[in-house]
Amino acid sequence: MWKKIFGNTKDENSNTYTSLLENIDRTRLPRHVAIIMDGNGRWANGKGMVRSAGHTAGVKALKRTLKAASDFHLEALTVYAFSTENWKRPTAEVDFLMKLFSEYLEKEIAEMDSENVRIDFIGRLDGLSPALQKQIDDARRRTVNNTGVKFNVAVNYGGQDEMVRAVQSLAQDVKAGSLDPENIDSKLLESRLDTKDLPPVDLVIRTSGDIRLSNFLIWQTAYAEFWFTDTNWPDFTKDDLAKALLDFSQRDRRFGGLNKKK
């Protein structure tokens, strides 16, 4: 089916992408897209390269995906950059990822700002180096008034950890006597999540073939649609995002209810 619609091209400037950008029903687009950027290591291994080469190539894929999200006027894009479990990886790889993250902010923040992107970060940021925390704070402040796509980077993030932190925050208020446990509801809990200023996730995209959430945005994806591809993240193009958005636009979302047309 996809070959018939999109052809075999991986050209990010393809006529397919341009056509979809111009003709897709924007009222059927997701407000919030979340991406699990998987497959950097597999991409590198498949080419006989070291894993770090895959991570570097993955940054390029992120840049073009953010540009595409802006082209489609998506409200929010959240990407899974580094999980609370990723610290288990070899020290050399972790150090490289942190350096790459720092370099990405240094090199790309000016362009993101000029393109009206608002960047934010979710996760246990106090677990990062002081220098990286400062870069994150500077990037936030620089783009805080931008009105384009809300670009959220999950760093040292885990969905379970986020839930624990939210519950601890509520428990502190109960302990202090400023909150009655009977008044705790889903809206109040959501207000303590890292994503409190964002709409619920509508679409989750995962690359590289695995079919699982991997501790990503557990609460926020309760009624999200999922789109999986075997493509490794470094090979993910604007066409791939367009395919996912088109597929989403054709789905029947009932949120536990019934389709009124049936």
From TrEMBL:
GO terms, molecular function: ditrans,polycis-polyprenyl diphosphate synthase [(2E,6E)-farnesyl diphosphate specific] activity; magnesium ion binding
Binding site for Mg(2+): D38, E225
The entry's keywords: Magnesium, Metal-binding, Transferase
Pfam families in alphabetical order: Prenyltransf
EC number: 2.5.1.-
SUPFAM superfamilies cross-referenced by the UniProt entry: Undecaprenyl diphosphate synthase
Protein name (database record): Isoprenyl transferase
Source organism per UniProt: Anaerovibrio lipolyticus DSM 3074
